[in-house]
Amino acid sequence: MIFKTSNKYLNYLWIKDKYLLYLYMNTLLETCLISANRLLDRLLFVFINKKQIKKVGIFIFIFLSPFGLTAQRGYYTKGDTVFYSHYRMNNVDAKSFNIINSNYGTDGQKVYFKNKQIEGVDIASFRALNDFYSCDTHHVFYKEDIVEGANVTTFKIMDTDYASDKSNIYFWGEKLEGCDLKNFRRMEIDEEHYSCDHKRVYWRHRELKGIDKKTFRIMKGHSNIAFDKKRVYYYGRLIKGADSKTFEALSTYFYRDKRRVYTLLMDVVEGADAKTFRVYCPSSPYGGDKNRVFYKKEPLCCVDPDEFVVISYNMGHDGYFLYFEGSMMEPVSSHYLKMKPCGFE
Length: 345
What we know:
Strand order of the largest sheet: 4-5-6-7
Largest sheet: 4 strands, antiparallel
């Protein structure tokens, strides 16, 4: 133990002062954000009726405006100039400009998606279908681009991500090749965009080749992960070598199968012992096995995994030294020793 502590102290002497400054600034920022959240919570509690909520909104606007946090969104004019968000739109007549919806506008001669002109559009028949799809008598558009081959007459919006015509399904303007329209369904209404028909499985508009549809499923609580009987997918990308039968989530940051440990981004934690690997807090990127502590996929030098404690998302200590984002910072003070493990959860 004496040798171990001495070794840590020698390592500590090499730590540059900029890490200490980074730590202190991060702590100060976290304190300010916590105080701001508490202030807003108290204001919403005090001004609970509708008339007073309006006053709170005015207060927040006045408070945040100097910091640029209330910048305008969508279309607006200043004098003779039209803006979309902070983009200046050149050669647009502000007097004749008409806002169609939050993303589409026209000056009577051209049609725009946000600050970009839509080429080849028939202005007389143009109409917005939602905030991203539009059409005229000849074409369907997704944002400012033509959806190639889409049938204008039968084109309809299915939800915020998917659309269809008489023959095809479209995701963000891209055709799902080979998809059977009658048997199409979303596998989950979430942001991960897995869908299928009676034969195929798609991630967004791309078919997952060679997949076993009968055994394909999405991990409960981790919809970015999906399986079939042989493979594991992360956002539609095959994770090579992953064992689907034993693959499991340890936390929001770490996963494992019988052979390896993986991070949130599916990077392999090299050298980690999968059988004994554990997490210290459900949402922290610190984990450990019987031999070492890891921050994300990097091992910490000379740290006893049984003594290590996580006290914030990216901060922990082993009773001797404080670690920030996996780097040794300073001898741990009594303040940090008194902090509750995973108290940030």
